[in-house]
């Protein structure tokens, strides 16, 4: 089936639409689940950094407002160290969750690549043996071929 005119001429639109729907059911369900999981992971990864920054500020404020004679008292330099450390940790965790959905695809691709590379080659490209065509000529002839387009009587 080359184009929509052939489909319309043969009257097989409904059958092809049913077949198309049938073939898409399993991939649709799989991709629906996969996209839902990926969306949740992406949303979670995007929320990690602001949460960590907020926790860093809250912890820094707690340290700063503590009594000076307590062990966990902090001055400005310590607070900024804590905030930047928590911020950096949040960034690392965020990036980890960003790439997590792609690890399964990468593992599958690597496995397929290794299987492909382990197969022996069927063609020896360095060999001088075999048939070597000196001239290639493309000459195609068709005889007694007729087309019928019931929807377009003017075309023969």
Fold blueprint:
Blueprint lengths: L3 H7 L2 H53 L10 H43 L38
Helix pairs in contact: 2-3
Nutshell version of this structure?
The chain is mainly alpha-helical.
Structure commentary:
This protein is an all-alpha fold. The chain has helices at residues 4-10, 13-65, 76-118. α2 (13-65) packs antiparallel against α3 (76-118). It is elongated, with a radius of gyration of 33 Å. The relative contact order is 0.08.
User: From the helix content, strand content and strand pairing, which structural class follows?
Assistant: mainly alpha
- Spans of 5+ residues with little confidence (pLDDT < 50)? none
| Distance between the ends | 19 Å
Count, helices = 3
Summarize the main sheet: none
Give the overall form: elongated
Overall radius of gyration: 33 Å
Name the beta content range. under 5%
Number of strands: 0
Helix proportion: 55-70%
Order of helices and strands: HHH
Return the average pLDDT rounded to an integer.
80
Attribute tags:
3 helices; 66% helix; 156 residues; mainly alpha
